[in-house]
Structure formats: C-alpha cells, structure tokens
Amino acid sequence: MPKIDASTPVVLLPAVRQGGLGIARSLGRIGVAVYAVDPGPRSPASLSRFCKGRFEWNLEAAPASESVAFLLHLANRVGGKAILIPTTDSAALFVADHAQQLRASYLFQDQKPETAHALANKASMFHVARRYGIPAPETFFPQSEAGLLAFLETAAMPVVLKCLDAGRPLRRSAPAVQIAHSRAEAQDMYSRMQDPEVPNLVLQEYIPGGDDTIWMFNGYFNRDSQCLFGGTGKKLRQCPVYTGATCLGVCLENGVVVNTTLRFMKDIGYTGILDLGYRFDARDGQYKLLDVNPRIGSTFRLFVGEDGMDVARALYLDLTGQPVPASSPRYGRKWIVEDDDLLSGIRYYRDGKLKVADWLKSFHGVEETSFLSLTDPLPAAGMAISDLRRLGAKIFRRGRRPGKAPARTGRGSLRSRVMSAVKPLMEF
Questions:
Q1: Which of 133, 67, 136, 57 is nearest to 106 (CA)?
Q2: FRET pair for 73, CA 20 to 30 Å: which of 41, 267, 305, 338?
C-alpha cells in the first residue's frame, strides 16, 4: 500500500465491542489518531494502545440537540476536521439527520437521510428491494395484535420476528430476533417483544437452512456509488445461535451477491460503507436480502485485502482525498469473535448441532481474532472482565427470582450449585 497521509483524526460513534476495536486497530496501525466515544464503561477500543483518547456520551439517551453540541465541542478538543464513523444504525441515522450541523467540523459518508432511514428500517427496506428487483423474503408489519392474528391465519410457519427500526429498540431485555415455530408461539413472542404504544416489530418469512446459508457483503461506495473495495463471505456460527451476529465467518467469493449488491446500490445512489446480509433460499435458488446496515458492520475485519485494505481504510483514504488502491479480499480467510463463539459452541453442542472435534477443526484458517492480540493485549482483558460481570449479573438475577426455594446445604447441593452457575452461561 502506498504511503498514507494519516494526519486526519477519526472519532468512533460509539466505540462498540469488536467493531470499534477493529476500526481502532486497522486505522491506528497506519498512524491515524483514533478517538472513542463510549456510552458507558470503557469499551475494548478505548483500552487499545491505538486509541488516543476516550470521551463518554450516550447518544441513545441524550436529546439530539445536546448530542450535536457534544460532538461539535469534541471536534474542537480533537483538533482539525476529524472523520466521524458511526458504528450503529441509530448513530448512522443521527449523523445523516444532522449532517448539515456536523459537516463544518467533521468528514463522514454523505448519505441522504431518506436513503439511510429506508434501508435501516426492515419494512421499508423490503419495499425498496422489491422496487428495484432485489429478491427478499415476504415481510409484514403488524400495527396491532388484531393485525398479527389476521396475518397468522394464512401465514406459513415458522416466521421470524425482528426489530423493525434499530433506532427504536423493542421492550427492555427483549431479544432483537426470534423464530416462532407455531402460531401460539408467534403470539407469545409478539406480546413479549412488541411495545403496543410504539409498534416496532416486523414478521418475516422464514427461509430454511443452516447458518452457512447466510451470506454477507461488506463494501465502501464513493460519492458516485462506485464500490472501491468490497467482499463477500458467509456465516459459520452465530451468537445468539440461529438468529444472531457472526461469531465465526469465512471470506468466500460469491459473484451473484456481489453483482446484485452493486446494481442495487448504483440504482439507489448509495454512498459510504455498507453491510448487508443475504440468505440462500434452496426452494427457488435465489439469494434473498435480509438486512441492510447503512454503516460499518462489526464483521468488517473478515473482509481484508492482501495489502491490508478494508472498508474503514477505504473510507479514510477516499474522504481525505487520497487514492484507494485496487484490492481484493483474501478469500478463504476466517475471522472469529472469541467469547461469543465459545458460548455459541456450547449451545450448538448442547443442541446436538456441533461435535467437539468439528468445533476444533472449524478454527483452521482463522487469521484474525477480534480481541486477542499480543501487540495490543488490554482489550482482551477488558472483554474478559466485562463477560464475567455479565455472567455474574445473570447468576445473581437467577438467584433472586421470586418463589425460589432456599438452597440446600451439604454435599447434596454441590451439583445444583454448579448447574445453577453453568446454566446462565449456556443461555448467554
């Protein structure tokens, strides 16, 4: 890779888990000063030796006007016109909505607000995809329980229930995605996930197949909607299992997914980093669009070129007016989220979906871990402490459940105490 002018700093909004850490390491290793915005406790990125500074701000909780003021003040502290990289859907939508106010102090992907909102929202994304001839699973947005019941009368089971708009989360502690195998189960999940005051739940046709039928595309598109760097890969394991994010993935070439995505983004005039998910439907032989994230994805380090190019570096070079060298991802490369994959492996094993020998074999070809690094060790330690805290909180909540019988004393209670500690781990 040619010599890079790394004088423009970068601000991560927010610096979430492995995604934020991946950006800090990727850009930090070419000399870029990276600053982390944390919504709470220190993120792995803020613990990295490549992080030059940390600022605490909760974008989700603060009024938009106060967040704009915070970011403008932060730009003065960082010095120079920094690049602002949103790492969540809500952050990407916030930047798109307040671009006019932020543009004087920051560089960022110049996305039309209507485009960002249309892609981030599962219902409108379905309609946009269909409008441009992109295959997608049937999608229904129930406005009420009555609408849900009417839909379920003719719907084929199972169905997928998921958050419609990431900017408006579901009920507190409700999972973002669930699969209902019966109408009764769909009703129960709906009642636990949906907020009747602010409906934010979408039901989607379930496409049968294992984790390895889910394909991903990551790419960076310039202002002319030309892809300067991009690649495809597929999930091998997810966390949470069956419905979650990639915890073990492999970079593989898929020309159909590439060509479909490039045509779609050109048609809608997309600009910036993009993270998409497709699922191969063996029933009709089509790759169907599941999700579109109009921002950098947490799996972006799965897609890395021979010269170290990734979407974060492509964005940095393009926004700073530097040429982006032609580069192709290294197909066959694997990437892993260590703690999530361990927990998923336990669950897949418990469900009879994974043998220990196959789990060990699956690590062959892993070229990058999300947290562990001999040259940058603190983020892994921070991740381990955070995981232990979350596990401890689960055990504590389980122990305080109403009506729980007092624990027996003596040797007979040893097994129950061990199982009680392990069970939250299995459900993590």
A1: 67
A2: 41
Instruction: Please report, for residues 89, 167, 257, 292, the alpha-carbon distance to residue 124 in angstroms, rounded to integers and kept in the order given.
Output: 15, 14, 21, 11
119 in any annotated domain: no
* Angstrom distance (rounded) from CA 320 to CA 349: 47
Q: Which two tokens stand for residue 168?
A: 């408006």
- Give yes or no for a contact between 276 and 303, defined as CB atoms under 8 angstroms apart: no
Q: Are residues 270 and 228 in the same domain?
A: yes
Per the structure, how many domains does the chain have? Answer: 4
Model confidence at 125: pLDDT above 60 = yes
- Helix count and strand count (H, E) for the chain: 15, 16
Residue-wise pLDDT for 315-361, tens only, equals: 999 999 999 999 999 999 999 999 999 999 999 999 999 999 999 99
Any idea which of 155-164, 294-303, 410-419 has the lowest mean pLDDT?
A: 410-419
Answering whether pTM is above 0.70, one says: yes
* Whether pLDDT at 399 is above 80: no
Residue of 290, 297, 288 whose CA lies nearest to 220: 297
The token duo for 283 is 């029933």
Contacts of 387 (CB under 8 A, 6+ apart): 339
Query: Is 4 inside a domain boundary?
Result: no
Which of helix, strand or coil describes residue 138? coil
Measured distance CA(370)–CA(111) in Å, rounded: 28
pLDDT bucket at 427, cuts 50 / 70 / 90: very low
| pLDDT number for residue 92 | 96
- Which backbone phi and psi does 56 adopt, to 5 degrees? -100, 125
For residues 152 and 63, state if they share a domain.
no
